[in-house]
Write a sequence for this structure.
C-alpha cells in the first residue's frame, strides 16, 4: 500500500488529501500539522474549515485510509510520498518584506524531513512557492543524508475555496513538474498514477520543475489580472454611463477571452492572489526585470484603488460624512461559500469607513465575531501567519458590532454595503429592510447581486459597481 503523508492540514492539505483518500482506496493518507486544535477539529464532527461537500468526503474515508495526526515525524518517516502544503505567506520583515514569500515554514518542514527519513522519499511541493524553490529544498534535503534519495516534484494546487471539492473531483488540469532525469521521471510517474485513479490522463500535465513552479504564480497572476482589468473598466463605466455587466458580457463572448472571471467587484481578496503577485513582482525585480515587475504590480495597485474607490463613493454619496452613521456590512468573507477572511476586501473597506468615524454593524453567515475583530485589529500581511504570531483577539472595537443576521445589521442603519455575494443577500425582504432603516436609505452593492431597479422602486438609493445610477 502506498503511504502518503501531507504536512499542513489547511485549506489545501485537508481537502486535497481527503479527495485523494476517497479516490484511491489503496493509498493510505495521513495529514499532519503542528497545530493541535486544527488536527483535533479534523478528527471531530466540526471540521476546521467550511467547504461545501467536504464533510461528506471526510466522513467516507476518515479512520479507513484517511488520518489526521500531530505525530508529524512518525508519519513522515513512514511515508513514500510526502506532500508539503504549509503556508507560504508574504514576508513581513527583513529582505523582501511586503513582497517576497516567507519560506520559513517550508524550510523547517524540509529540514525535519531530512532529519527523520530512513528510506527514499518523493517530496512534493504542494504549497505555492517562488520559482527555483525546489533547488533550495533539494540542497536542504540532501545535505545530511548520505544514501537516502529524495526526489522533488512540484505539484501546485489550483482549487478555489468554496468550490474546492468540485475542483478536486474534476480539475481542469493536474500539473506535475520534475527533474528531467530517470529518477525525476520515475517520481512523476508515481504521482501521475495516484491522480490517474480519477483524473483523465490528458488532463495530467507533466513539465520540468521550474515551469510547474512558475505556472502556478502565472496562473494566479493572470486570473487576478482579469479582475483588475474589469474593475478598471468599472471605474470608467461609472464616469461614462456604460454598464460594466454589459461590457463584460460583450468582451466575454469573444471565444478568445471567454466569459468566466469577469465580474466587477469591490476588489479581489483571498490568501493567494495578492501574495502570489507580490512574490512574482519580487522575483522579477531580483532577476533584473523592473518593467515586468511594474506590469504585474499594477494588478495589485488597481485592486487597492478599487477598494478605496468604494469607500470614497460611500462617504461622498452620504453627504461627505459617515461620522456616527450606522453602516450595515453584509458579508465579510472574501467570497461566498467560505468562512475564510484572508485579505478579504471587507477588511480595507471597514477600516476605511471606521477611519471616517462610521459605526459598523457586521453580519456574515460563516465568519465568527472573534475572527472579524481580529481581522480589523491586525496589520496587513500578518493574517497568513500562524495564530501564535497574531494579536490576541480584542474583546471589542469601538464602533463595531457583529450581529447574527442581516435584518439586525440593517435595522436603523443609514446605508448598507454588500461586500460578499452570499446567496441569502439576494433573497432578503428588501421592503422590510427599507422600512427599518434611516432615510434616505443607501445600498452600495460591492458585488452587483441585488436587483437595483426593484430596490429603487422601494425607495433605496442604489450604487452598484460600474453601473449607471
Ligand atoms: P493554511 O494556513 O490554511 O494551512 C497551512 C498549515 O500548515 C497550517 O495549519 C500550519 O499550522 C501548517 N504548518 C506550517 N508549518 C508546519 C510544519 N513545519 N509542520 C507541520 N505543519 C505546519 O494554508 P493553505 O491555505 O492551505 O495554503 C497552503 C499553501 O497552498 C500556500 O502556499 C498557498 O499559497 C497554497 N494554495 C492555497 C490555496 C487556497 O485556496 N487556500 C489554493 C492553492 C494553493
Ligand atoms: C484562487 C484561484 O481561483 C485558484 O485557482 C487558486 O488555486 C487559488 O486562488 C490559490 O492559489 O489560492 P480563490 O482565491 O480561492 O482561488 O477564489 P477565487 O474564486 O479565485 O476568487 C478570488 C477573489 O476574486 C475573490 O475575492 C472573488 O470574489 C474575486 N473575484 C473572482 C472577482 O472579484 N470577480 C470575479 O469575476 C472572480
Amino acid at each position: 500500500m502506498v503511504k502518503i503523508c501531507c504536512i499542513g492540514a489547511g485549506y489545501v492539505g485537508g481537502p486535497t488529501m481527503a479527495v485523494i483518500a476517497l479516490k484511491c482506496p489503496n493509498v493510505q493518507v495521513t495529514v499532519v500539522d503542528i497545530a493541535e486544535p486544527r488536527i483535533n477539529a479534523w478528527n471531530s464532527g466540526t471540521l476546521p474549515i467550511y467547504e461545501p461537500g467536504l464533510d461528506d468526503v471526510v466522513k467516507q474515508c476518515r479512520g479507513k485510509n484517511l488520518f489526521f495526526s500531530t505525530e508529524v515525524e512518525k508519519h513522515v518517516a513512514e511515508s513514500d510520498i510526502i506532500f508539503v502544503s504549509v503556508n507560504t505567506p508574504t514576508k513581513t520583515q527583513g529582505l523582501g518584506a511586503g513582497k517576497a514569500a516567507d519560506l520559513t515554514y517550508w524550510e523547517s518542514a524540509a529540514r525535519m524531513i531530512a532529519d527523520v527519513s530512513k528510506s527514499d522519499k518523493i517530496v512534493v511541493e504542494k504549497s505555492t512557492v517562488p520559482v527555483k524553490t525546489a533547488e533550495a529544498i533539494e540542497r536542504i534535503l540532501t545535505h545530511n543524508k548520505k544514501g537516502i534519495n529524495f526526489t522533488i516534484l512540484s505539484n501546485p494546487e489550483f482549487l478555489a475555496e468554496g468550490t474546492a471539492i468540485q475542483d478536486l473531483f474534476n480539475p481542469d488540469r493536474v500539473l506535475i513538474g520534475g527533474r528531467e532525469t530517470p529518477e525525476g521521471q520515475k517520481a512523476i510517474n508515481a504521482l501521475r498514477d495516484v491522480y490517474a485513479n480519477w483524473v483523465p490522463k490528458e488532463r495530467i500535465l507533466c513539465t520540468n520543475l521550474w515551469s510547474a513552479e512558475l505556472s502556478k504564480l502565472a496562473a494566479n497572476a493572470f486570473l487576478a489580472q482579469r479582475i483588475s482589468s474589469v474593475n478598471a473598466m468599472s471605474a470608467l463605466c461609472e464616469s461614462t454611463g456604460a454598464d460594466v455587466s454589459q461590457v463584460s458580457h460583450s468582451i466575454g463572448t469573444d471565444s478568445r477571452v471567454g466569459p468566466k472571471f469577469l465580474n466587477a467587484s469591490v476588489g479581489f481578496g483571498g490568501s493567494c492572489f495578492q501574495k502570489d503577485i507580490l512574490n512574482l513582482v519580487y522575483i522579477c525585480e531580483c532577476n533584473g526585470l523592473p518593467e515586468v515587475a511594474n506590469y504585474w504590480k499594477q494588478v495589485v495597485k488597481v485592486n487597492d484603488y478599487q477598494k478605496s474607490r468604494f469607500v470614497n463613493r460611500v462617504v461622498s454619496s452620504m453627504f461627505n460624512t459617515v461620522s456616527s452613521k450606522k453602516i450595515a456590512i453584509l458579508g465579510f468573507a472574501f467570497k461566498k461559500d467560505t468562512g475564510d477572511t484572508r485579505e478579504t476586501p471587507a477588511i480595507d473597506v471597514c477600516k476605511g469607513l471606521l477611519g471616517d468615524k462610521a459605526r459598523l454593524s457586521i453580519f456574515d453567515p460563516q465568519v465568527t465575531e472573534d475572527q472579524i475583530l481580529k481581522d480589523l485589529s491586525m496589520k496587513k500581511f500578518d493574517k497568513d501567519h500562524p495564530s501564535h504570531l497574531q494579536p490576541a483577539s480584542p474583546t471589542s472595537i469601538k464602533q463595531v458590532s457583529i450581529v447574527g443576521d442581516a435584518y439586525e445589521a440593517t435595522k436603523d442603519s443609514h446605508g448598507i454595503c454588500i461586500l460578499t455575494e452570499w446567496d441569502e443577500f439576494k433573497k432578503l425582504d428588501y421592503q422590510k429592510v427599507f422600512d427599518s432603516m434611516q432615510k434616505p436609505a443607501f445600498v452600495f452593492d460591492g458585488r452587483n447581486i441585488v436587483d437595483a431597479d426593484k430596490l429603487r422602486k422601494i425607495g433605496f438609493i442604489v450604487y452598484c459597481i460600474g453601473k449607471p445610477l
Notes: The domain at 241-464 is CATH 3.40.50.720 (Rossmann fold). Residues 7-13, 33-35, 38, 72, 85-88, 105, 108-109, 127-128, 157, 159, 161, 271-272, 386 surround nicotinamide-adenine-dinucleotide (ligand 1) (CB under 6 Å). Residues 209-240 form the longest helix (32 residues). Residues 220 and 273 are 6 Å apart (CA to CA).
